[in-house]
Structures are given as C-alpha cells and as structure tokens.
Write a structure and sequence with these properties.
Length: 352
C-alpha cells in the first residue's frame, strides 16, 4: 500500500527538545520483544507535532508523509541495564548508540522536514519489524536506515547473515568405546566448516566469510538410549558471495546429522554515486565535516530494505559503533545535534 500522506505538517523541534526526547527514550527499556512502552512514547512525539502516526500489528511506529525518502531505525536494544546519566555533554545508557541516538535524530529530522518515518522492532533478533514494513507498504524513493556510523560517516555496506541449527543423534554406549558420538559429529562438522572458510590475514574481514557457533546443547537423552547434539551457528557473508553459495559449501561438509537454515539475509553494498549518497556528502561538508564511507562486518535492517526495494539506501546515525552492545555505551550529544543537521539537509535536498 502507499504510505505517502496527503499532507504533513512540519514543525520546528529545537535542540533542547530533541535531546529531551532522546534521554526519555533511552530511559525507557526496550529489549527485543518489549518495545511497546518506547514505541508509544515515540508515537506521542509525532502526535504532539501534528503528524499522522500509528503503531502497526507488529509494533512498528509508522508516520507517513512525503515519500521522497523514508527515515527509519530500530526501537529495540540488546539486554543490559546501564544507568542513564548525562555528564560533560555525553549521554550514557543502553541504546544511546544502538540505536536510539540514530532513531531520535531521524525522527526529529522527519518532523522538521516532513518526510516519512518508521521506527521498527526486532532488529536485534530477526529484523521482524523491517520484514513486516517491506511486506505491506510501497517502496519509497530512497531509504535512510538508522545505525551508528558517526555523524560524518555514511555506511554503504553490510555483510549478509546465514543462521542454522545442526542436529545429530547417535546410539548411546560406554565412553571408553572409540566410536564417535553425536557430540563429536557436531564438532567435526563445524571444524570442517571453519576450515572451509579459513581466514586470510591479508584480506579485510568485510571481504571474508566468518563463522561463529552461538549455542550448543548435547548429552545422553532422557531415556538413556541415545546421545544427542544441537549446534546453533551463524556465518557472515561478504557482498562478493551469496548466502546460497555459502550454504552449499557448509552443507557439503555434512557427513552425519542434518542442518536447518532458519535465517538468510543477503549482503548489501550500495553505490556511493546515488543522489542519496551525494546528498549526505554535501550535507556533512556543509557542517565542516569530512565524509567517510563505511563498510560494516555485521548485518542490519539495511540488508532487508536493499533486498526488497530497488531504491537508493544508506545507513547513517550518530555514535561510535564500537560501543554497540557494550557496558560502556554512550553518545556524544554534540554529534547527535550535528547528525540532525545533516539529516535535515539531506531530506531538504531530496525533496527539491
């Protein structure tokens, strides 16, 4: 469906109001699955500024307007309680960087310029909010996804993600026997997968497949008749490969057991020559910055938007991404202010 409103009031949200909204949202815990309170507060900000807004079926905050560009970021955070405080123009708290700083910067810029906005849920687990968004609205002309890039950084690339679960079962037996059991089969398979994607120290991490086990459960079954092993894994996929190609290699290393692939997000590498990317470079220079083009080794909602919509996409937002998910998460409020200025200039440029 179309999500361009027939009219969108523009307001002027000043620096003090923007910072107050940011502190309020960082003060409201919103780990994945528990975003409702934060979403309601964010929606009330749009209502107070005479913008149409609603919370959709999955919990996304939707504020349609001019669809020359969609500003979007995620509401959820990883777990972790970091006391919220402001000291020396720095905000401390869970989500201040990932990604409520970008979320609020985009929301304020959207209100001040009259462009479309969506605050989405579930990015930290399965990008469920982003998947829902692309499934029931038309593509905008461009997308800015909010994640920390630094106020002078423009993120153009993310690796893809392949997630799976390996399961193996073997007959139980005395541990003195030489026969390999299900746990060893799981270890053997994963060792072969790691060898297949052995890291090249001369190549950047972004250009390589990296492998990571993220969960394991194994041992003698409750009935005592078998040994079972379950191994959850993730592989990050560079833009030079497809997730299908990586899956085929991993499946080819199977000798025992089965693997079910439950997460498949393609990599993305956007062009720096689109009107959207150029608008960011111009805006950053206008605020005396030196634009940096960034590639990230993780995966984000940008991958989902780029795969679903054939439009220019970049990721942008204040904050040091090295602080993502850490107990030291904090945001420079001066950089937050500058990021809003950049986003306002970009939206204005794209609407002219």
């Amino acid at each position: 469906m179309s999500e361009q409103a027939t009219a969108a009031s523009t307001a002027t949200v000043d620096t003090a109001e923007a910072r107050e909204l940011l502190i309020d949202l960082v003060s409201i815990p919103s780990p994945s699955g528990e975003e409702r309170g934060c979403a309601e507060h964010l929606a009330s900000f749009f209502t107070a500024n005479d913008r149409e807004v609603w919370i959709d079926d999955v919990g996304n905050v939707r504020a349609p307007a001019e669809d020359d560009v969609l500003y979007t970021s995620h509401i959820d955070t990883v777990p972790g309680d970091i006391p919220v405080r402001v000291a020396e123009d720095t905000l401390w708290g869970r989500g201040s960087v990932d990604a409520k700083g970008p979320l609020v910067a985009l929301a304020v810029a959207a209100v001040n310029t009259g462009v479309s906005f969506a605050g989405v849920v579930g990015e930290e687990v399965d990008s469920g909010g982003a998947h829902h968004l692309v499934s029931n609205r038309d593509a905008p002309a461009a997308v800015v996804n909010g994640e920390p890039s630094g106020w002078d950084g423009i993120t153009l690339g993310y690796r893809g993600l392949l997630g799976g679960t390996y399961v193996s079962t073997s007959e139980s037996g005395h541990t003195s026997r030489p026969d390999r059991n299900a746990i060893q089969h799981a270890m053997d398979w994963w060792s072969r997968v790691e060898d297949a994607f052995e890291r090249d120290e001369w190549e950047s991490v972004f250009e390589q497949v990296t492998t990571k086990p993220i969960g394991f459960d194994g041992g003698t079954a409750a009935d005592g008749l078998s040994v079972e092993a379950t191994l959850d894994v993730q592989l990050r996929v560079p833009p030079s490969l497809t997730t299908d190609a990586v899956r085929e290699i991993a499946d080819g290393e199977l000798e025992h057991g089965t693997v079910t692939w439950w997460d498949d997000i393609p990599p993305v590498m956007a062009s720096p020559r689109t009107p959207l990317a150029r608008a960011f470079r111009v805006a950053i220079r206008a605020l005396d910055g030196d634009p940096r083009l960034v590639r990230k080794t993780g995966t984000s909602d940008m991958n989902v938007y780029a795969d679903a919509w054939d439009v220019p996409v970049v990721t942008y937002g204040p904050g040091d991404s090295g602080l993502d998910h850490t107990p030291d998460e904090h945001l420079d409020l001066g950089d937050f202010d500058r990021a809003i200025g950049v986003l306002e200039r970009v939206a204005t440029d794209l609407r002219e």
